[in-house]
Design a protein that fits this description.
Keywords: FAD, Flavoprotein, Oxidoreductase. By secondary structure, this protein is an alpha+beta fold. 50% of the residues lie in helices and 14% in strands. The strands form three sheets. Strands 1-4-5-8 form a four-stranded mixed β-sheet. It has a four-stranded antiparallel β-sheet with strand order 2-3-7-6, with no helix packed on it. Strands 9-10 form a two-stranded antiparallel sheet. Helix 4 runs antiparallel to helix 5, helix 4 packs antiparallel against helix 8 and helix 7 runs antiparallel to helix 8.
Length: 399
């Protein structure tokens, strides 16, 4: 026994040549079509629509979506590899792709066949985009504490509420929306929440404040307001009053994508730091020859590869439908995002003044890395999840 897992076989990562060929094709596309435009994205705070169009033509939006719903298949590991490569070039573009998974996962896992065909297929073809509206002004980590309301009226529901920090809201055609359909029950705070698919063009759906956050320029979040929005009852995802399980289960999967974003950021900044330390000379020698620099480079590489292995491992467990993937996903997300922030910070320090020059394009990764430590459940919440899952899986107890 490898506590809390049952065997050392539980730690295998199922990578094959198909994954590597896919990674190479994604990297080639991004370096040719996206990397030359990173500065434009930073300056305008917009991702050019032709990039999305080209990605759709390449089938990127269908990765991780079963073929029967118009996707390319590939599973969680293939999705992870794609997200890592995208974030290596422009992290905010990885966010723009990731919000489609935040929309699609709950429908694929809990939605009706009609919802899958109606909403997932356009997403997979790149013809539409989705977003995930759960976080509220009162907080996002406490899913059971949401205050938006959905009242049943004949054959539909009427939703009222405000959601904040919603990534992809501006471009989204559809939203996954959580709302309270009944009051909490004693000892069951989670009960009474229902999840819906809401179309953006329905009356009462409005974009509010545009949040100018520290990073992820090109895909910064919005407030979304729902003012007496009528939603047909067939747009309920999962069971009425049990939407908490839908939301939390979604994050178990999608936080692996955040870990992958962090790995991409770490990879990019490590590469830049290593290259610069080989080119920059000081006191007549390359700066990598200085002990403090080569120690930083070695430590950066250690953290990078550890983060990648944790992330690929979590994805492999998810693809194998192993319940242990939940704890692995939290491990990967918290470790990788903190590693990305640390590695980016060291890369800036190694570059000196150039590291904080916006024209160089390095400091943006540090700003973006901070975001990865916060969304999809803060790293403090990940540690709580890790401890609770550890006790549950090892001893069958709830804490």
């Amino acid at each position: 026994m490898v506590f809390p897992f049952k065997s050392i076989e539980d730690f295998k990562i199922d990578i094959n040549n198909e994954h590597e060929l896919f990674r190479k094709s994604v990297r080639e596309f991004l370096e040719k079509n996206v990397e030359p435009r990173w500065k434009e994205i930073e300056d305008t705070n917009q991702i050019p629509p032709e990039i999305f169009k080209a990605m759709g033509e390449q089938g990127f939006f269908g990765i991780g979506i079963p073929e029967e719903y118009g996707g390319q298949g590939g599973g969680q590991l293939m999705t992870t590899i794609m997200m890592e490569e995208i974030a290596r070039i422009v992290p905010s573009l990885a966010v723009a792709v990731g919000v489609n998974h935040l929309f699609g996962v709950p429908i694929l896992k809990f939605g009706s066949e009609e919802l899958k065909k109606k909403y997932i297929m356009p997403i997979a073809r790149g013809e539409a985009q989705g977003a995930h509206a759960n976080t509220e002004p009162s907080g996002g980590s406490d899913v059971a504490g949401i205050q938006s309301r959905a009242e049943k009226q004949n054959d539909h529901y009427v939703i009222n509420g405000r959601k904040v920090f919603i990534s992809g809201a501006e471009k989204a055609d559809y939203f996954i929306v959580s709302a309270r359909t009944n009051p909490q029950q004693q000892n069951k705070r989670w009960w009474g929440i229902t999840v819906f698919v809401v179309e953006k063009n329905w009356p009462g759906v409005k974009l509010g404040q545009h949040f100018k956050v520290i990073g992820m320029r090109g895909e910064q979040p919005y407030e979304v307001i729902f003012d007496n929005v009528k939603v047909p009852q067939e747009n309920v995802v999962g069971k009425v009053d049990e939407g908490f399980k839908v939301i939390v289960s979604t994050y178990d999967y999608t936080r692996i994508g955040i870990a992958a974003q962090a790995v991409g950021i770490a990879q990019a900044t490590f590469e830049k730091a290593l290259n610069y330390s080989l080119q920059r000379e000081l006191f007549g020698q390359q700066i990598i020859n200085f002990e403090m620099i080569d120690e930083k480079i070695a430590e950066m590489y250690m953290k990078l590869e550890a983060a990648r292995l944790l992330t690929y491992w979590a994805a492999s467990l998810a693809d194998a439908n192993r319940s242990e993937f939940i704890i692995a996903a939290s491990l990967a997300k918290s470790f990788a995002s903190e590693a990305a922030e640390w590695i980016s910070r060291q890369a800036v320090q190694i570059h000196g003044g150039y590291g904080v020059d916006q024209e160089m394009g390095l400091e943006r990764y540090l700003r973006d890395s901070v975001i990865t430590t916060i969304y999809e459940g803060t790293n403090e919440i990940q540690r709580l999840t890790i401890a609770r899952e550890l006790v549950r899986q090892a001893f069958g107890l709830k804490i």
